[in-house]
Design brief:
Helix content is about 25%, strand content about 40%. It has three helices and seven strands. The protein is of the alpha+beta class. The two termini are about 30 Å apart. The chain has a seven-stranded antiparallel β-sheet with strand order 1-7-6-5-4-3-2. The longest helix is centred in the last third of the chain and has 23 residues. A hairpin with a 2-residue loop joins strand 6 and strand 7. Helix 1 crosses helix 3. The chain has one domain: START domain (Alpha-D-Glucose-1,6-Bisphosphate, Chain A, domain 4), CATH 3.30.530.20.
């Protein structure tokens, strides 16, 4: 199975990054403007991109360290895949390790999503460092 992996160094605290990837306010400021989300295990976050809606279940939360999601409603190739964010503080900065696993194949959709995730990680980094992201 294919996976997307991205690592970023962010000049922000783990707490700030965790808030950005778990709260409705945070997620809507770097990923999808139309977001319904709660930092609760079992909650199904909803992200709307135009006519496309993703329902992604929160499966694990370790405050300021790890977030895990499972995609339950989305484009066909996302269904059943898993997304995780690992945060590590190091030398006054944070390292964010992003992974989107469970892809059945490296298709054109996989390649497009790989690019989009990189752009959204740049948006997340910008939000955490400057207060402004570039959500869809």
């Amino acid at each position: 199975m294919a996976e997307i992996k991205l690592n970023l160094v962010i000049k922000a605290t783990p707490e700030k990054i965790y808030e950005a990837i778990t709260t409705e306010k945070g997620l809507s400021n770097w990923w999808a403007k139309q977001t319904t989300a709660k930092p609760e295990v079992g909650f199904v976050n909803e992200f709307t991109f135009g006519n496309d809606r993703n329902e992604i279940k929160v499966t694990k939360l370790i405050p300021n360290k790890r977030v895990e999601w499972n995609c339950i409603t989305a484009i066909e190739e996302w269904i059943g895949t898993n997304i995780s964010f690992d945060i590590e503080e190091k030398d006054g900065r944070s390292i964010l390790r992003f992974t989107h696993t469970g892809w059945k194949a490296m298709t054109d959709t996989y390649a497009v999503c790989n690019y989009h995730w990189a752009m959204f990680m740049k948006s997340l980094k910008s939000l955490c460092e400057t207060g402004t992201g570039t959500p869809s």
